[in-house]
Amino acid sequence: MTTNLAQHFRKQLDEIHAALVALSPLVADTPWREGGWTRKQIVGHLLDSAANNRQRFVRAAADGSFAGPNYAQDAWVAAHGYAGQPWDTLLLWWRWSTRFWRQLSTTFPRTGWKQAAG
After folding, report:
1. Rounded to whole angstroms, how far apart are CA atoms 67 and 48?
2. Which end of the chain has fewer CB atoms < 10 Å from its terminal CB, N or C?
3. Which residues contact 110 (CB under 8 A, 6 or more apart)?
4. Number of H helices, E strands in the chain
């Protein structure tokens, strides 16, 4: 059953996707701020973070808690080489990654959210 929270979350994912698609590849290659990541690297970070958090949430729900490794965001972004990926490829990966979260937002047990956040 889809809750109001899940519906709101899905709507936000759709809005973020629309905003990302509206960016040109040139803008995607531009750092967000001086010395910072490009938008490509930010999307890559979101992909990595989503992968790490998906595992964290499911393990917390299944095991009652989560005690895994921290997410070394700079190392992950560098290892994946997001800055050199085509913008449309990153957007495709983003769309597929968010499908996992869309499903999880519908099926994840309510008690699991508290365990994953703890």
Report:
1. 18
2. N
3. none
4. 6, 0
Q: What share of the chain is helix, strand, coil (3-state, %, to 5)?
A: 75, 0, 25
DSSP 84: G
Strand partners for 31:
38
Quote the CA–CA distance of 39 and 87 in Å, as a whole number: 9
pTM over the 0.90 mark: no
Q: Which two tokens stand for residue 32?
A: 């967000």
- Quickly count: other Cβ atoms within 10 Å of residue 62's Cβ: 11
Question: DSSP character for 17?
Answer: H
| Residue 86, both tokens | 């085509």
Residues linked to residue 38 through DSSP beta bridges, in sequence order: 31
